[in-house]
Design goal:
This protein is α+β, with helices and mostly antiparallel strands and 157 residues long. The protein is built from four helices and nine strands.
Length: 157
């Protein structure tokens, strides 16, 4: 099961290291981590995605709440939040398969940001599962490189 945590922390040097150290010491895996300043410059927001059984996800939440620099921890449920991720992917392309790749991009709402003679770079912003589906769709063309941001999420009201 995936656990999505929205964590408000004090915007200070070393906080990210403390949080990642907590995961390392406890043997928890971080699937995705995105950090950014909030509207208040003294506070940063972290979105952490981790995988584990119910007990592990509960432990992560408890451990995060114990950290001094943590202001607030919220566990987000997939059906009650909006999750987005951004990806840049470099895919091989030839004149013979270019139109097929363009069609996949159009259908998937992905944007071509660079087109070269042998490859193209595509940008996509979507839910993490849509990103995964897109990767599978273009895998047969030949993926040269992928860069992905971590998941960012906000709870729905």
């Amino acid at each position: 099961m995936k656990g999505i945590f929205s964590v408000l922390v004090e915007n200070q040097a070393g906080v990210l290291s403390q949080i990642s150290g907590l995961f390392a010491r406890r043997g928890f895996n971080i699937d995705s981590l995105a950090v950014g300043e909030t509207e208040n410059h003294d506070v940063s927001s972290m979105t952490i995605v981790s995988t584990g059984d119910e007990r592990t996800i509960d432990q992560i939440e408890k451990q995060l709440n114990k950290k001094l620099d943590v202001i607030k921890v919220r566990r987000l449920e997939n059906n009650n939040c909006v999750c987005r991720e951004m990806m840049l992917i470099k895919v091989s392309c030839t004149p013979a398969n270019r139109s097929s790749l363009l069609e996949i991009c159009l259908i998937s709402h992905a944007e071509i940001v660079h087109m070269g003679p042998k490859d193209m770079i595509i940008e996509m912003q979507a839910a993490p599962d849509e990103i995964e589906n897109f990767i599978e769709l273009v895998r047969s063309f030949g993926i040269k490189e992928i860069q992905r941001t971590g998941t960012v999420a906000l709870k729905k009201d």
